[in-house]
């Protein structure tokens, strides 16, 4: 139980309301004390992810816990990183994404966009992610500084309206949100031993081939390496770093987090936080220490948004420690 939530009030008869609210939420609590502040807090988080309509007093309490939870999540993240826990670190970041987007991780990613329902998604593209739908509409290919012409905007809005029950105004707001969604491309990775000046360089295609073909990049045991990851923002409106999270009560600058770890052993090798990307290209640096024991290590490089659901990326890297 988190002590910060002990002060969340449980008013007269709210124990009954808590019981009723739970019937509409996906996670059922097996508790006897429905007057607990912690039980109510858990329900408020679930209601936030489900975008459930609540009584006025509950909305006030929900806003209070949502505004204060980011520092708690940051402390959880720092602890997980310190303990080198890959899966738990990833789960904390997914929880943070859910907080900002007011959606469950298992929801269709297009539901994060305004005015879209399950019915609308069926018409627009039930199998599309947000990056895929941006690519299909021709938004992904635009360079920094380029904007859609009025004719192109009209074409997309008309397509949205024809394939859904959205009004023209709703389709226009949907397009504006879609343009704001960041798309990140991993360009190159460099690996540099701290003791040597020689740099090993391989491109994204080779990274993927390394994972698929079983070829391994040799690293020395018990050695510190610098891991350089070149990232590039794609599409228009790159200078706009304000995140689209209308259900979060405060303004948010979207950032990214890189995780490098062994999914088999759940060991986090390294991480790097990128507060926000307002320039088109960025080189992130991770410091890693290779294990003492020689062997083959299959690592995951995860590129995680700290704000958005549905745009995370993962790459498989094979290393041979000698």
From TrEMBL:
One of its GO terms (molecular function) is 3'-5' DNA helicase activity. InterPro entries: C2_domain_sf, Ig_E-set, Sec63-dom. Its main location: endoplasmic reticulum. GO terms for cellular component: endoplasmic reticulum; membrane; nucleus. SUPFAM superfamilies: E set domains, Sec63 N-terminal domain-like. Keywords: Chaperone, Endoplasmic reticulum, Membrane, Transmembrane, Transmembrane helix. It comes from the Eukaryota. Residues 1-319 form the SEC63 domain. The keyword Endoplasmic reticulum applies. This is SEC63 domain-containing protein. It comes from Meloidogyne enterolobii (Root-knot nematode worm). The lineage of its organism: Eukaryota, Metazoa, Ecdysozoa, Nematoda, Chromadorea.
